[in-house]
Amino acid sequence: MLNLKSTQFMKNKFAYLSSLILAIVFLAGMNSCKDDPTALTLQTLVAGDIDMNGAVAPTTVPTNPTIVASFSTDVDATTATTTSITLTRDYDKATVATTVTVAGNKITIVPIEALASGALFKLNFAGTIKSTEGELLTALERNFTTIGKFAPSGLIAYWNFEGDAKDQIGTFNGTSLSVNYNASHSTAAGKAATFNGTTSIIEIPNGDKLMNPDFTLSFWVKAETQDKGHFVMGLGAFYGFQFEIAGDFTNCKLAGAYSYQGGGDTAIFTDNWWNGDGKNKDNGGWQGWTLNKDMTGSGGIPSLLKDKWAHVVCTFSSSTRVATIYMNGEAVKAQDYNLWPATDKWVKVNGMKYGGKAPDVVNELAFGFIQSRAGTMWDTEPWGGYGIPGANHFKGQLDDVRIFNTCITAAEVDLMYKSEKL
Q1: Whether the predicted model's global pTM rises above the 0.85 cut
Q2: pLDDT for 248-261, tens place per residue?
Q3: 23 in a structural domain
């Protein structure tokens, strides 16, 4: 028979063993938690209030989005960089420059420049991204499309003429005189600015700020028959840039001012002129003309421009020194200034540059004429004075004028035309 001391000893031993077992179980549980850190998974992906992580890819993401990705646990900032998180344009596979910042479990991605509108993008998170606990993310991709019709990045001004002359993306708002706003080339295009051929004009202040070394001008135009030429638009005439259509519609041109290496503040001026006769540097044309689309067997340039809508794009690349005109998505004229005579300043051009000098030349961009009313150059010329009804005032319609500080590509021109023509 056990005595009381033995019984108490057994009880104490059992209590001790029970406590030891509980401690071991607790420590095992603690070690188990340490061995199983939280998996790193994407919880939400948004641009403002737009869900970018749903079953259907969004199609209304703004062109200047702030994209925020939230994860299941904190992210190791050293692993979440512009190398492991990339944004790619689908149409040309180009990587878009972004900034990437990490705060706890959130990663914020912001494009450095506005994205192309109406374009598909792919956002990739690499499998090298880690949580602060060392867990790797399973690589993932999310797609989205930016809002609107297609237009490349680099846009600095856009006038859609929906009843006014406001710049839709910036501060280049215009004032109009004798301009009406009527139906454009398609229902989707809405309204267009209509010019009467004698007094209609829209004037945009600070137009010199629209000229940059790399340059693109894009617009829709419908020039109507009249017994004179059409100054569709102009910034200080050719001391800035101007687009002109001949009265018989047999040619058109972009005249522009350019800077050149070694020229200081001097700007030189020339035309990128398309006559449609098919002659280029290889068959009797000027030595710098690399392209001059032959229109002689298809009705000539009037078949594209006379009393009908056309999409026109004019570009200049400061790196290649090539100026190009596109018509309805197709390159029709190109000139390479590297091929000019070796002693000519043109082999040294390095970009578009405003060269106007007040008071004769004023830095206002004019739609409907070669210069604004404040400019006095050519005031007495029968073709060049705004106050002269017989001068080359534009008669017709103009819509969706865009200016870029980049030289957009042929693929981008084609996409823009196809996006807008319907």
Answers
A1: yes
A2: 999 999 999 999 98
A3: no
